[in-house]
Amino acid sequence: MRRKGFVMLVLALVVMLAVVLKVYGAEKIAEMCVPMGIITLNSPEGVEAKKSPVDFPHTRHFATDCKVCHHTWQGEEKIKSCTASNCHDQIKAPQKSRSYLSYSDVSITYFKYAYHKSCIGCHKEIKMKNQALEKSYQVDEEQISPAGPSGCIECHPNQE
Question: pLDDT by residue (tens digit) across 137-152?
Fold first, then answer.
């Protein structure tokens, strides 16, 4: 008798799954697949890399709203690479300014500056918030977020 109930439950779950796929469309579900694990960020084609590629732990960033990094994404279409989206597609470095992190609106189209401003800027912001929490002496361990790397070797460990 118990086995019959189990079989009925499994059949009901299969029917529910089929209904969900029919309602939402298998194609729609496949389009929304998010890359899991580590994404290797390489220089665009035609650019000679001066440092090693960056292994980006995409899964660790799931608590962050997707639009923080993918700022032009509308939420429906497939996300394009930064260098293929007419956003950060400049492959030649602009003339350097005095301060490495003083990115202008023009230079932010350079792919490397966009990554650096977004990634390092966010990690430094988290680090400053953590320091402020620690100084307040009103902090629990759960409130401290991992800040992430903000130095060259931390992201490019295999420098040549």
Answer: 877 766 788 888 988 9
Q: Which of 157, 145, 156 is nearest to 43 (CA)?
A: 156
DSSP 8-state code for residue 90 = B
- Whole-model pTM: value is 0.66
Q: Does residue 151 contact residue 45 with C-beta atoms inside 8 Å?
A: no
Residue with tokens 């799931």: 62
Task: State both tokens at 31.
Answer: 């389009």
DSSP 12-27: HHHHHHHHHHHHH-HH
Tell me, what DSSP letter sits at residue 9?
A: H
Domain spanning 35-155: which superfamily?
Cytochrome C3 (3.90.10.10)
Q: Where are the beta strands (DSSP E) in 89-153?
A: none
Domain edges within the chain? 1-33, 35-155
The CA distance from 125 to 133, in Å, is 12
